[in-house]
Amino acid sequence: MAALAQRVHHILSNGGNYNRLICDVFANDAWASVHSSESVGVVRTTSKALNLQECGIDPDMIGAHSLRAGGAMALKIMGYADSTIRKFG
After folding, report:
1. Number of Cα atoms under 13 Å in the Cβ half of residue 75
2. pTM of the model
3. pLDDT tens digits for 2-59?
4. Which of 1, 2, 34, 86 fits a disulfide with 23 by CB distance 3.0 to 4.6 angstroms?
5. CB neighbours (10 Å) of residue 22?
6. Residue 80 class from Cβ within 10 Å (0-12 exposed, 13-18 middle, 19+ buried)?
7. What string of DSSP letters covers 23-62?
8. What is the average pLDDT across 53-82?
């Protein structure tokens, strides 16, 4: 929750308003949204750069859900309760 609060504070402190999306960024004096296709592209490019295909991970099978599942697993490993992880969505 602290990270979410920091993100909202950052948006509002930099000229954003309550209509901004949590994934919006301020760059080159303008607001822009980050789309899931861009996130997937970066993750796939990174997986290729890390040669994850050599470990049996097909970069073309990685999607935005991979980030969500990975985040949930990281929280589980860190000891968060299942109910808390579900609240993060």
Report:
1. 17
2. 0.56
3. 778 888 888 888 888 888 887 888 888 888 888 888 888 998 999 999 999 999 989 9
4. 34
5. 9
6. middle
7. TEEEETTEEEEPPHHHHHHHHHHHHHHTTGGGGT--GGG-
8. 87
Smallest Cα–Cα separation from 43: which of 27, 65, 23? Answer: 65
Three-class SS state of 17 = coil
Q: In this structure, what token pair is assigned to residue 52?
A: 């994850």
Instruction: Check whether 89 has a pLDDT greater than 70.
Output: no
Query: To 10 degrees, the CA torsion angle through 24, 69, 45, 50?
Result: 130
For 32, phi and psi rounded to 5 degrees?
-145, 155
